[in-house]
């Protein structure tokens, strides 16, 4: 909900406090008690949009002299009140308007209110209205009566409408200003990167992690795309974020891996600087997916030798190997199969199991479908959203010193209890049938013992 700070200003005794009192508390009093500056808060609808407004009731005793710069600065809209039955009170708002205009950087929304409408004849109203409109041709003028509750809400609605428009204009102006500043500076760092000019890059080194508004790329991503080893290195040694992503969620390592040229050294360099070798872009591709897609044997080799995970499924549920098989790229297929086999044989007792189980949530009855992946090597049981592989990861159960037991409650069939002693959590997990349950229990037990 948008929020506005509004001040009510004007000479003493014109009815500022009563207008606010009427609006916020639906009350009115005959007393004129001196006002202590305090904000009133109210939430209401303006053109069917809820707004929250903080209204500052100012002490008008010594009038505009007391206008504090701090609240002029803070307030986004001003209600300038005079009393229709005493036109000398208009002098105050003429002065106040000047002060506000001078101290505001942008135009300040104001509404002029002639209060105590109930005290004057219709004839006098017309004269007064003309008088005000001549002096303040740019502001809304409202005749109101706090006593008779006439036009009181209108006053606050109008000032919100005006403030809302101004706020949007200010936001837009600031955004444009920032955008211009950004693009002006960024142009240089991005252009410098494109031109491969180290001296120019150094000039704008503070913008090293800025994103080019046009292309959505950081300098590092540009240098990676250009396969410019030297500039990538320079950017990395000057604090470029190695895992920054472009609009497709691709890191520099993804981009490099997706090039057809030999980029092995750059891959090394990025990983050495902390690039996530298993990062996934928006379509779930890891660097090795990209390398496989462009049939870059050298890149695949390099990523494999750096220990990338070959089991990650992209959003189309494909591992890099599956992709290579589809592309009938038998060199890469052989390479990846080899790597996988080697990985398995290196870890003799490595066992993995994937499948769909049901896990009980926090609420007793709340059972959720989860895709489970058991890794003996890591001693973990990971589970994912839904019953398909490669959804959003929901959690990891540690199998370190974990224990399995029967489900004594027997709330559901084919369930077992898994006690994660590392994270001190107990899971109730349910398999599709008895056979499935026994398989899971066996493999989990083996993983725990391994
Ligand atoms: N007749 C009439 N009297 C009002 C109206 N609004 C305020 N007053 C009276 O004017 C006096 C001053 O009001 P107050 O709100 O305290 O003025 P402030 O100094 O501007 O805050 C009080 O006695 C109110 O009862 C109105 O609309 N009509
Ligand atoms: Mg007052």
Summarize the structure.
This protein is α/β, with parallel strands linked by helices and 450 residues long. 40% of the residues lie in helices and 20% in strands. Bound molecules: guanosine-5'-diphosphate (GDP) and magnesium ion.
Walk me through what this model shows.
- The protein is an alpha/beta fold and 450 residues long.
- The chain has three domains: 2-172, Rossmann fold; 241-348, Ankyrin repeat-containing domain (Serine Threonine Protein Phosphatase 5, Tetratricopeptide repeat, Alpha Horseshoe); 350-450, PH-domain like (Roll).
- The chain has helices at 16-25, 69-74, 89-103, 122-135, 152-195, 198-203, 219-225, 229-237, 252-257, 264-272, 287-293, 297-305, 320-326, 330-346, 434-449, and strands at 2-10, 38-46, 49-57, 77-83, 110-115, 140-143, 352-360, 367-375, 380-385, 393-398, 403-406, 415-420, 425-430.
- The strands form two sheets. The protein has a seven-stranded antiparallel sheet with strand order 10-9-8-7-13-12-11, covered by helices on one side. A six-stranded mixed sheet has the order 2-3-1-4-5-6, sandwiched between helices.
- A hairpin with a 2-residue loop joins strand 2 (38-46) and strand 3 (49-57).
- The two termini are 56 Å apart.
- The model has no long low-confidence stretch (mean pLDDT 86).
- It binds guanosine-5'-diphosphate and magnesium ion.
- GO terms for molecular function: GTP binding; GTPase activity.
């Amino acid at each position: 909900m948008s929020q506005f700070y509004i001040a009510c200003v004007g000479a003493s005794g014109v009815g500022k406090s009563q207008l606010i009192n009427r609006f916020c508390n639906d009350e009115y009093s005959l007393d004129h008690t001196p006002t202590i500056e305090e904000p009133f808060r109210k939430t209401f609808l303006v053109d069917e949009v809820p707004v929250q407004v903080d209204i500052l009731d100012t002490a008008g005793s010594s009038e505009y002299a007391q206008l504090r710069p701090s609240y002029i600065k803070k307030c986004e809209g001003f209600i300038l009140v005079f009393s229709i039955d005493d036109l000398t009170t208009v002098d105050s708002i003429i002065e106040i308007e000047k002060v506000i205009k001078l101290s505001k950087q942008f135009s300040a929304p104001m509404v002029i209110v002639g209060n105590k409408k109930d005290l004057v004849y219709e004839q006098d109203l017309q004269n007064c209205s003309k008088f005000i409109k001549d002096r303040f041709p740019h502001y809304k003028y409202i005749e109101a009566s706090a006593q008779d509750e006439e036009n009181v809400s209108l006053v606050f609605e109008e000032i919100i409408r005006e403030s809302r428009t101004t706020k949007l204009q200010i936001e837009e102006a600031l955004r444009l200003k920032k955008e211009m500043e950004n693009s002006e500076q960024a142009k240089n760092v991005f252009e410098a990167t494109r031109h491969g000019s180290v001296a120019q890059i150094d000039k704008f080194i503070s913008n090293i992690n800025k994103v080019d508004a046009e292309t959505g790329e950081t300098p590092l991503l540009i240098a990676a795309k250009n396969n410019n080893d030297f500039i990538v290195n320079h950017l990395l040694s000057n604090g470029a974020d190695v895992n920054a992503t472009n609009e497709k969620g691709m890191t520099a390592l993804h981009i490099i891996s997706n090039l057809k040229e030999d980029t092995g050294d750059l891959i090394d360099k990025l990983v050495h600087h902390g690039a996530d070798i298993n990062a996934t872009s928006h379509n779930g591709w890891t660097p090795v997916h990209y390398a496989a897609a462009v049939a870059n044997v050298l890149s695949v080799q390099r990523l494999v030798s750096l220990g990338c995970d070959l089991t990650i499924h992209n959003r189309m549920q494909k591992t890099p190997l599956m992709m290579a098989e589809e592309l009938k790229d038998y060199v890469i297929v052989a390479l990846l199969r080899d790597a996988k086999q080697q990985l398995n044989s290196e870890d003799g007792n490595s066992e993995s199991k994937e499948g769909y189980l049901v896990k009980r949530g926090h609420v007793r009855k709340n059972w959720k479908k989860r895709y489970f992946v058991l890794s003996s090597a890591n001693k973990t049981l990971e589970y994912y959203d839904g019953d398909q592989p490669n959804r959003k990861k929901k959690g990891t159960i540690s199998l370190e010193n974990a224990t399995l037991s029967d489900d004594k409650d027997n709330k559901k069939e084919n369930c077992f209890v898994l006690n994660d002693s590392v994270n001190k959590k107990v899971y109730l997990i349910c398999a599709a049938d008895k056979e499935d349950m026994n398989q899971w229990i066996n493999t989990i037990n083996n993983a725990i013992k391994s």
